[in-house]
């Protein structure tokens, strides 16, 4: 009885130790059991110095670790260390069959201190590897989630935080420039990735990830938490500005107003958590043009043109006064808007767009010169004279002054006038000329003419000037009438003088 109780106590003590280690390390108890069995096999192989196939097994009844040599039943034995004949096997086990593995118990009493030390190292190594694998598996499935942690220490600008079973690293590039933490502060971070290193799993956390802003909005805005308002896109430059696009699943719920809250209480609490980072809440729209105009706010957009649907490139034109506002500080506003909508945005002012169009027209005209013989109105002989002087295109001809044309042999003043008329007709038929004329006509049509005010409504000084002007006009009119009378009287005298010689 006493011996049985001792064996049972030894067994219970071993399994209690295994259970305790598994709880402390957060690993499966079976992993510890396998580690012990592998360790005793390593120690036994070193002690016996044989090529036998050995296995370790914990005896649940005695609590001892048995070492077993395994031999396979075969018809013809070629390796006596690992194989056994069927007849020999049935001496040990009467019901042995072909290809069955027969176990032979090996003595473990004389393993010695060195073998025991080796077994201890193997157990520690196996348990440590299992612990690291357990930590990696646990935190790897939480990548992208928000966790609470405690600032533990600083290491060359990086912050080491306590996550529970392991430590996390908040690198300097994953910290917002507006934030400063002290040792012992509780903070919220995003698990970005988990790496396997020689020292174990390395958990990387961040305070600059857009997922942090999304989590804060889910915490502060009940409509986002229950799914009434959805966050469709987030673009963030930590410590500077964040743009977040939201939409509502119900027509009666304003998504932007829900996120802002009464008097801005909801968004202000998020701004305080982010230490003053600016947040723009944008209304999502399925139409990419409308969404882009919302995303570039607070700047006002004149027009948007889709340049390339495949590469997702668009062009925005804004008023000259809105250009700096649309681009933002160091291009931040347009950069965040581009990330938010997923398109590349090229912003230009109205003046830049006009200059671009004009340069394109000039470049097209320069690239495609018009030969002289394609213009109706110029005779073949005139074209030959011009070409003989080195004038090959209409553009060259238009740039010449009348004096230069008259210096060409065979071209007089009447020919110069004819050339001028032909060029005028040619340019009048060009689309660019017609557009300019239509634009000038439209400007004249919509221009507001200011009628002169009545004399009695003007100020005294203005009335005097206008009265003087009227008097001057009357004087000019009288002088003109007198000159006309003098001229009329003068003409008969001239005719009479002209008729005298004939008489």
Describe this structure as you would to a colleague.
It is a single chain. The protein has 18 helices and 15 strands. The chain is elongated.
What can be said about this structure in brief?
This protein is of the alpha/beta class. 48% of the residues lie in helices and 21% in strands. The N terminus and C terminus are likely disordered.
Descriptive tags:
503 residues; alpha/beta; 5-stranded mixed beta barrel; 4-stranded mixed sheet
Q: Strands of the largest sheet, in order across it? A: 5-6-7-9-8
Overall geometry comes to elongated
Please give the alpha-carbon distance between the first and last residues: 180 Å
By secondary-structure content and strand pairing, the structural class works out as: alpha/beta
Radius of gyration: 49 Å
User: How much β-strand is present in the residues?
Assistant: 15-25%
Mean pLDDT: 78
Question: Major sheet: size, sense and barrel closure?
Answer: 5 strands, mixed, barrel
Q: Using DSSP, what is the number of strands? A: 15
What is the share of helical residues? Answer: 40-55%
Supply the number of helical segments: 18
